């Protein structure tokens, strides 16, 4: 552990500095120093050390060496960042839950915009579905910390992640690899550069991944002795991979093509297209605990034939409800009331309780839907035209689509107790124009721009609770139209001083119509059983009963939402002001003040009728930041650090209301912290990356309706409580040693250790879903034979640390469930280049 102690000591000296910033360089250059990384965080190519923004930048080689294969893989190597593959009941690890400095979003629903913007070659990916991009041909990734509203726009209130893919080269080149590993992993990747004519070149990239899941489904002992209702009796997005097998597996492939024209004068044109087919088993799921609350208690009472009173769980008024409805009307499926108490043992049903909590977190008794099928594709065209030696106009035109169908069995049992499935269809079009230039002998740099974005699509939710006691059928249609104007000026009147002034004006219009309903008519059954006169007969449902139940639409007695298209408009101005001081050529101190915002929308998940469509407003963040970037000791030591303070207003958080996860503006928060990243190259061949991040995030005000008091299940939400998905501390140390083996051959040994303190995985801070402190250790050894082939053997999560990535406290529905991190995995990779 001598390497770790040296790195931590180096960081400790930095913490005494008066200002902080951060960044990450990843490899040594030919001269033995620390390599430069060029980024485009300010819409122009610059050395990352010259950009007055807290940025973590990772090159392609660094990502491969550290076994980072997706955006979520950056979780452990970027301070004050939480990136998780999957959100509660999303069904897919291609869904990204992204938080930077305490700000983000932990849902996939169409009505919820991300708080961290993900950009692919300058094109905004509007949905968190598919945002956990595979990285087969990446050139670099830039993680920008803090509000990026001026240059990147809406929904970058926490920060931005910019993925830059490989551009075609002027000479033929092929680089590829094949990887095998635990759980039957077989992965292939390759990129070919194809020069076509003078000034015109193409590249083609591909990637495939096949592996088995790590959670095994097994039959519950004795389940065949009990009656059950087929899953196909209930509404769902599809019926796939039903039964046993495994969860958390992949069978995916993607393609990317680029065509680039450069006349070596004043015109450059790049056209690209990509297609991804992600066919997975469901996001691995583990039942953690059952609860005897509303639905579990009601069902368990019903099968025992209890009419009055509480038989150990459900409220007495719910114990009356024995009838279970289903598919096309509210009366298709036979009642299960009293089946365990009648004279016919052949129709007995399994109760729902802790018998289904497996002693092994990687074993489940689920046997329902188990799939996620995502197709996402798009194309873009980028034109750069030099108007003069100091002025360029740039256009980025892009179109993208995604089509998604997923189904999960979340109850961990052979019962149809909590099954979710979804379809999502989305398309987006964007057009961005930029004018980039410099003046006054490059003392003044500027970017001016205009942006247009349009998106539309639908999300259809299907949720089966308690053998159909509640059968949610929730189609929703949404659309967005956005335009913006932005500009930023960077002026450096002297060698030592610089100033940045920028701003962005955004106007956005949204529309929504919700059709969510309950195909079982549970509300009417309750009113019938408790003796509401208008609902004495509910077959058919009279209009008088509909009005008594509060359903808003005549002729649609099961539809929760008021009919008609809902509309909201938003406008915002996000400014930025910054100052820089350069005491030497290799050091910069900076300070900045910036704002960002995220648009509002509507809550789409209802389990009770409402007279109006419930909506939520925008959220806003104002951040003050100071930092330092420095390259010392003849480029042998790089120290970057940043300290920040954020006022976070109108926070949009996902709260569990009954069985419905709903979005509301929870209140305000204060977020403060710092991050330090150190790169040291003490000798040729030896490199150490180290970082520390600290974030203190807490509510300063919480609206009365959003507060959750501490209870036996949850720590609650109230002023002073911590924000979700935000650990206090994260430390990382990554030593890399390169040894010459004679000739052009090399041996590279790399290790990676990350310690993260505990965090809350959900808004209400459920104790059973809390992610405890973790220590993740990865390591690998690579033999490189010249520049033509290399062989790597390694292991991720060497100590087999397991933690909850995501989960939900579905207390009213009857369970706590979650997704555990992947276990220890070995891999071997053979790479070629010619």
Structural overview:
The chain has six helices and 43 strands. It has a single domain (2-292, 358-521, 558-833), classed as Beta Barrel (Maltoporin, Chain A), CATH 2.40.170.20. By secondary structure, it is mainly β. The protein has a 22-stranded antiparallel beta barrel. It has a five-stranded mixed beta sheet with strand order 3-9-10-7-8. The longest helix is centred in the first third of the chain and has 14 residues, at 2-15.
**Could you please say which CATH topology applies here?**
Maltoporin, Chain A
**What do we call the CATH homologous superfamily?**
TonB-dependent receptor, beta-barrel domain
Query: What's the number of structural domains?
Result: 1
Which CATH C-level class is it? Mainly Beta
The poorly predicted ranges are 1-31, 313-320, 322-331
Strands, count: 43
Q: So, CATH architecture?
A: Beta Barrel
Proportion of strand residues:
over 45%
Name the shape in a single word: globular
Distance between the termini: 38 Å
Biggest sheet descriptor: 22 strands, antiparallel, barrel
Oligomeric state, counting identical vs distinct chains? single chain
* Structural class based on helices, strands and sheet pairing: mainly beta
Q: How would you state the average pLDDT, rounded?
A: 90
């Amino acid at each position: 552990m001598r390497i770790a102690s040296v790195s931590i000591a180096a960081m400790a000296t930095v913490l005494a500095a008066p200002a902080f910033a951060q960044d990450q360089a990843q490899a040594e250059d030919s001269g033995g120093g620390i390599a430069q990384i060029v980024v485009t965080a300010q819409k122009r190519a610059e050395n990352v050390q010259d950009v007055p923004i807290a940025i973590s930048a990772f090159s392609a080689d660094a990502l491969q060496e550290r076994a980072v294969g997706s955006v979520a893989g950056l979780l452990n190597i970027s301070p004050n960042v939480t990136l998780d593959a999957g959100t509660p009941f999303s069904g897919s690890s291609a869904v990204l839950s992204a938080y930077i400095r305490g700000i983000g979003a932990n849902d996939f629903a169409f009505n919820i915009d991300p708080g961290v913007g993900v950009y692919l070659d300058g094109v905004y990916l509007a949905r968190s579905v598919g945002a956990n991009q595979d990285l087969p041909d990446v050139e670099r990734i830039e993680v920008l910390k803090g509000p990026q509203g001026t240059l990147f726009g809406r929904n970058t209130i926490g920060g931005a992640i910019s993925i830059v893919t490989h551009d075609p080269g002027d000479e033929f080149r092929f680089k590829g690899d094949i990887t095998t590993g635990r759980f039957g992993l077989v992965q292939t990747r390759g990129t070919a550069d194809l020069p076509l004519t003078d000034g015109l070149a193409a590249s083609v990239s591909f990637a495939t991944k096949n592996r088995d899941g790590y959670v095994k489904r097994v039959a519950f002992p004795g389940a065949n002795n009990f009656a059950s209702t087929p899953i196909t009796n209930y509404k769902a997005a599809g019926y796939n991979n039903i039964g046993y097998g495994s969860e958390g597996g992949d069978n995916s492939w993607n393609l990317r093509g680029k065509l680039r024209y450069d006349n070596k004068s004043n015109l450059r044109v790049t056209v690209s297209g990509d297609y991804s087919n992600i066919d997975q088993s469901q996001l691995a799921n583990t039942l953690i605990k059952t609860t005897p609350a509303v639905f579990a208690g009601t069902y368990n009472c019903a099968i025992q034939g209890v009419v009055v009173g509480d038989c150990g769980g459900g409220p007495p008024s719910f114990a009356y409800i024995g009838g279970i409805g289903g598919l096309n009307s509210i009366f298709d499926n036979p009642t299960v009331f009293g089946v365990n108490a009648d004279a016919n043992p052949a129709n007995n049903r399994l109760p729902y309780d802790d018998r289904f909590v497996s002693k092994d977190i990687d074993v489940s008794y689920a046997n329902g839907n188990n799939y996620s099928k995502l197709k996402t594709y798009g194309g873009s065209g980028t034109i750069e035209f030099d108007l003069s030696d100091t002025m360029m106009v740039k256009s980025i035109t892009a179109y993208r689509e995604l089509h998604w169908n997923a189904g999960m069995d979340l109850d961990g049992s052979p019962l149809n107790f909590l099954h979710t499935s979804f379809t999502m269809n989305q398309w987006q079009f964007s057009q961005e124009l930029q004018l980039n230039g410099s003046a006054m002998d490059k003392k003044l740099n500027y970017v001016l721009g205009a942006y247009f974005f349009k998106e539309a699509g639908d999300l259809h939710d299907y949720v089966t609770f308690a053998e159909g006691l509640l059968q949610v059928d929730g189609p929703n249609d949404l659309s967005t139209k956005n335009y913006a104007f932005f500009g930023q000026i960077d002026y450096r009147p002297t060698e030592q001083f610089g100033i940045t002034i920028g701003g962005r004006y955004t106007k956005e219009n949204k529309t929504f119509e919700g059709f969510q309903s309950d195909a079982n008519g549970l509300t009417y059954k309750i009113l019938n059983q408790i003796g509401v006169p208008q609902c004495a007969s509910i077959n058919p449902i009279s209009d008088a009963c509909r009005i008594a139940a509060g359903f808003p639409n005549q002729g649609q007695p099961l539809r929760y939402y008021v009919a008609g298209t809902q509309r909201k408009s938003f406008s915002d101005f996000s400014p930025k002001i910054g100052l820089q001081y350069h005491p030497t050529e290799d050091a910069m101190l900076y300070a900045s003040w910036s704002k960002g915002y995220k648009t509002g929308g509507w809550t789409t998940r209802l389990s009770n009728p409402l007279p109006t469509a419930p909506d939520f407003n925008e959220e806003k963040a104002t951040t003050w930041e100071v930092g330092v970037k420095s390259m010392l000791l003849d480029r042998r030591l790089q120290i970057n650090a940043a300290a920040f303070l954020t006022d976070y207003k109108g926070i949009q958080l996902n709260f569990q209301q009954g069985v419905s996860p709903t979005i509301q503006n929870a209140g305000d928060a204060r977020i403060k912290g710092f991050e330090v990243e150190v790169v040291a190259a003490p000798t040729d061949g030896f490199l150490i990356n180290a970082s520390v991040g600290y974030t203190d995030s807490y509510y300063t005000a919480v609206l009365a309706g959003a507060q959750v008091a501490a209870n036996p299940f949850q720590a609650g939400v109230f002023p002073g409580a911590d924000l979700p998905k935000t650990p206090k501390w994260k430390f990382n140390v990554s030593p890399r040693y390169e040894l010459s083996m004679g000739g052009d051959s090399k041996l590279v040994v790399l290790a990676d250790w990350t310690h993260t303190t505990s965090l809350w995985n959900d808004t209400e801070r459920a104790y059973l879903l809390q992610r405890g402190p973790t220590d993740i250790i990865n390591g690998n050894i690579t033999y490189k034979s010249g520049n033509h082939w290399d062989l790597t053997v390694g292991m991720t999560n060497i100590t087999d640390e397991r933690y909850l990535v995501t989960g939900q406290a579905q207390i009213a529905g009857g369970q706590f469930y979650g997704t555990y991190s992947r276990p220890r995995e070995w891999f071997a990779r053979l790479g070629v280049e010619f």
